[in-house]
Amino acid sequence: MNVRLRSVAGCALLVCAAAILPYARSVDNYFVQDDFGVVWLLGQKPWSYFPRWFVSTWMDDIWGYTPDEVRPFPALTYQLAAAMTPGSPVADHVLNIALHAANGVLVLLVAWRAALLPLAAATVAATAFVVLPMHAETVAWVTGRVDSMPAFFYLASFLAFARWRAAPRRSHLYWGSVALFFVALFSKQNAITLGPTLVLYDGIVERRPIRISWDWLRPYLPFALLTLAYFGLRYVLFGEVARESQLTAENVRTFGELVARHLHRTVFGGVGIARAWHWIPVVAAVAAVVARAPRVAIFCGILWWLIGVAPVLVAAYDSPRHVYLASVGWAILLGLGFDAVARWRWRAAARIASIGFAAAAIGAYTVQLARAANEWELRSQVSERAVAELEREALAVPEGSLLVAAAPVSSWEWAAPFVLRSPFVDPAARGRVTLITPWLVDCCRAQWEDETRRRLREWVARGGPGVVLALRWDRGRQSAFRLSSAEEPYLRSLVQVLLDTDSRTSLDRAIRALVERLPPAR
By the 8 A CB rule, do 381 and 28 touch? Predict the structure, then answer.
């Protein structure tokens, strides 16, 4: 191995270490929120099901509707994880962390070989990327893989295309880029932006002017055909090509607010409010970087961010993981800033200043990342304790009992009824009891009211067998708040109170009032 390759390998190891160490503790984090439904559904699918995911939604209708998401490759990873560690999140977390580290290495290579940064500056960019605090949701949350995995194939495809441009005779790089784009498309729909990204890269960085000719069009044709075929498939399956029904006046109006929040999270790390004057040095620094390296800064920084954030327009909700790929642009801008400082005339001062710049940015992000990762660990601890105690109670109460249970939304949003299903609990627990939860904890919000009332009526019609057991888990407590009708018979009368409510809101409010007033367990 020559000196150059050893240097690259050393930088890649450094980036991997920066990506892995902050999340090492999350390997044991339990499932939270959507994880329960995703793992329950995909873990039970047979291996022969994989081809069907290319022509159907990967989530069936477990959320009460059919999502317009064709994602066979992420689905396959959940099958593999379930086979390796059934009922345990360890394999899922190891895969998430490995993907994040691999993405960090790809950012290093993109910054070095496509953005043409020196290796040291590219390492700064990649290290900054992997320690951005907003990535905690993508990495520490099992379901966050739906953004880190497509980002991996998107970055790999882009890098292969850029390397092919530098060495046109190496056609395997070009066709590898096309193949990687196919995988990215069938990992998440936001990969449709790669075609425009390649055109802009050629025009801005490679300085290849747009010409309406076969020679100009030919390199983009496979990407365009794959994108059009993907659009056609989505239209056949879902009646839409790119969630155009989400382009409502309200979503367009709030798009700017979403982008502003995402930009704030990326630049400043935390969720606090940045004052206008906080942005002045940021804007000035970006302007200086653009002035020094306009083509690379505009494409690899500003345009990459804008292209990456564009799909948020049809996402319909706010989530930090939605700009996982877009944040590569900010990371490369930081690398460009490091390089600009390092090239000051006064070499000794420049070296010290550039190292100080990198250390300050990466250090600040790392501190905030530790807090964000710790938050996901706390959520998982509550969730794990709640599932274990729910299983124990379901197996201990008389058969046919009614359980009213609630955990913090940060731990259990969308989680019921999957929390009471295999592989999370003993299969016998599910069939022994009727489970009722607040609206935000349930998987199917459109059907929640009708389904909850049906379960309550059926329990009453059977004569109210067993007991009514109310449970609530809070953060910071090692035991649940618990009350049984065996101790307080009035709980049975509250079932009729729930049935007498006249709306979804009042029913949800009544259930939450019931569990929020529980005394500590004796």
Answer: no
